[in-house]
Design a protein that fits this description.
Layout: H1 2-24, H2 31-68
């Protein structure tokens, strides 16, 4: 357990140092990073839609039927 906590502490320190280095650098507009975030977000939306899509369609259909007075 202590070993995991120490490892996590090291990883956290490395992450903080990486953020500090990135903040100090003159590189602005990291386009590949934004592209990665966009692609990952699209993948997350598509995977959630694949899992929840049929249920959402059924819920929407039920709601519309109750408003319109469907079958």
């Amino acid at each position: 357990m202590k070993r995991s906590v120490r490892r996590l502490g090291r990883l956290t320190r490395c992450g903080v140092e990486a953020v500090r280095r990135a903040a100090r650098s003159d590189d602005r507009g990291d386009v590949p990073g934004w592209v990665l975030i966009t692609v990952m977000t699209a993948g997350l939306v598509l995977s959630l839609w694949a899992v929840a899509g049929p249920r959402l369609e059924a819920t929407f259909g039920d709601a519309m039927d109750s408003v319109v007075g469907g079958p």
